[in-house]
Q: What sequence folds into this?
């Protein structure tokens, strides 16, 4: 480390990229699970069906976060 | 920085041949294990248990049914016995009254017969008495009349005519009495 | 900074004091260990594969003996195993695709669930310290199995490959120009995205779990033992607590990922069936 450097920002841009990439899916997952709970509370008899749909949604949403993670690992 | 060359990370996502090989082998082994041994075994246990529980429940149900049947049978018998007893009582009562009525009628008829017999014997006695009396009275009165009239009454025809008329008068008198 | 750059965000709390920080910080090289057996052959084994093999043997032994000794009246351990089987059977398979359809997929989901669970738990077992599913090949194998299964069930239940593809790629009730856009996406989804997402989800969870946990433990070691400075002890203790928390969290994640993987397998297989409702 250069002693003349007073403050150093160490790290990798991909980390920030991953952080950004996690925002969207985070919001999406939050909305999805919240809505799933809401609808289950409204119609508990449909919970099996709702769960199935929820898992499909989860899979699709999470792919985005996973792609972010892959990009993060790849570039590090 | 030395451990992580740029772009090294991509290696993580490229499966190595040996990695695939071993993963495949392990997965096959585990799949065979689960498919052929583990799950069938537990499924058998589950089935057996379900059967046992079902069997126990069936047995209990059968026992309950049996008990119910026995109870019903017992109750049936009891009511039957009760009916029979009352029937017997009724029969006995009917028979008793029958016997009583019988006896009464027999006694009545007997009494009637006795009284009839008595009546008849009385009547016959009376008749006898009357006949003998008639005879005696006849002779006595004939004798009496003979004695009174003397020799006047010699012919038999006059005698019997007179006796008859006298007796007829007597009878008429007694009838009027 | 000699530490792993990619992970410096995780060590940021101690970043200012680390003139030359702990040299053993976890890196992605943990997931690319050198071959230690049969080097250079297609049957080479590295550390993770060795862990996987050991875990397989343990799994076979434990569950094999459990199944062998299974009695009509279950003991405590057998009850637990039975509870897990019934959990997979009812909560994973039957609740997503119904009993009639799901019956033949129970063993598959069970295999995936139990294997993934045990392999994931290796990440918190001392001595192993890395999940056996933490190389891409293992999740990939699971995902390929799922892929094959749902293509097979789709072809079988729809009556031919053409009909299955028609059902998947050209869903009814959509105006035809949309198909130009929709069909390639749908094809990509059933051929690449679904298994790829399955693979990546499990793998990425294991990688990140290991990185976080190992970082926490290395930092604990660094602050409490390596740095001879009493003032830094509380930081070390905090790292230790964090590591403790992360271990618990990893156990939870191990179970959750096994569950999600098997549920998604069931969901994908179910969605390959013709819609008959």
A:
């Amino acid at each position: 480390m250069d002693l003349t450097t007073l403050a150093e920002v160490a790290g990798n841009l991909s980390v920030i990229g991953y952080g950004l990439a996690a925002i969207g899916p985070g919001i999406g997952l939050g909305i999805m699970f919240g809505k799933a709970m809401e609808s289950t509370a409204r119609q508990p008899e449909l919970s099996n069906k709702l769960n199935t749909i929820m898992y499909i949604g989860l899979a699709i949403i999470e792919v985005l976060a996973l792609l972010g993670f892959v990009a993060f690992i790849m570039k590090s | 920085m030395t451990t992580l060359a740029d772009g090294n990370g991509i290696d993580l996502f490229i499966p190595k041949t040996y990695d695939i090989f071993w993963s495949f082998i392990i997965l096959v082994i585990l799949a065979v294990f689960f498919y052929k041994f583990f799950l069938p075994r537990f499924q058998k246990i589950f089935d057996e248990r379900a059967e046992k529980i079902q069997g126990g429940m069936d047995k209990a149900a059968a026992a309950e049914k049996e008990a119910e049947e026995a109870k019903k049978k017992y109750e049936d018998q009891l009511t039957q016995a009760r009916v029979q007893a009352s029937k017997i009582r009724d029969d006995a009562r009917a028979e008793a009254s029958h016997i009583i009525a019988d006896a009464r009628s027999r006694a009545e008829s007997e009494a009637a017969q006795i009284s009839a017999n008595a009546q008849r014997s009385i009547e016959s006695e009376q008749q006898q008495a009357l006949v003998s009396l008639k005879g005696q009275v006849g002779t006595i009165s004939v004798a009496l009349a003979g004695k009174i009239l003397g020799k006047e009454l010699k012919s038999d025809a006059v005698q019997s005519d007179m006796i008859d008329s006298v007796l007829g008068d007597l009878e008429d008198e007694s009838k009027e009495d | 900074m000699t530490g792993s750059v990619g992970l410096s965000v995780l060590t940021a709390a101690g970043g200012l004091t680390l003139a030359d920080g702990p040299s053993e910080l976890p890196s992605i090289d943990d997931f690319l260990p050198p071959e230690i057996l049969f080097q250079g052959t297609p049957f080479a084994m590295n550390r993770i594969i060795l862990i996987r093999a050991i875990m397989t043997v343990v799994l076979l032994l434990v569950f094999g003996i459990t199944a062998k000794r299974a009695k009509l009246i279950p003991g405590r351990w057998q009850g637990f195993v039975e509870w897990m089987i019934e959990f997979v059977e009812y909560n994973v398979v039957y609740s997503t695709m119904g009993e009639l359809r799901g019956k033949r997929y129970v063993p598959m989901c069970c295999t995936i669930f139990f294997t993934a669970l045990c392999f994931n738990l290796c990440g918190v077992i001392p001595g192993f310290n890395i999940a056996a599913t933490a190389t891409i090949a293992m999740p990939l194998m699971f995902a390929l199995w799922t892929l094959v299964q749902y293509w097979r069930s789709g072809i079988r239940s729809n009556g031919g490959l053409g009909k299955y593809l028609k059902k998947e790629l050209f869903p009814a009730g959509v105006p035809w120009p949309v198909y130009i856009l929709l069909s390639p996406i749908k094809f990509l989804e059933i051929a690449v995205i679904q298994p790829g997402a399955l693979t990546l989800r499990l793998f990425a969870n294991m990688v990140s779990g290991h990185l976080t946990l190992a970082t926490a433990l290395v930092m604990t070691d660094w602050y409490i033992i390596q740095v001879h400075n009493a003032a830094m002890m509380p930081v070390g203790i905090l790292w230790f607590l964090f590591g403790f928390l992360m271990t618990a969290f990893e156990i939870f994640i191990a179970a959750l990922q096994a569950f999600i993987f098997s549920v998604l397998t069931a969901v994908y297989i179910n969605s390959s069936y013709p819609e008959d409702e």
In short: Chain C has one domain: 37-272. Chain C touches chain A at residues 1, 4-9, 15, 19, 28, 95-96, 193-194, 196-198, 200-201, 204, 207-208, 260, 263-264, 267, 270-271 (CB under 8 Å). Chain C has seven helices and two strands.
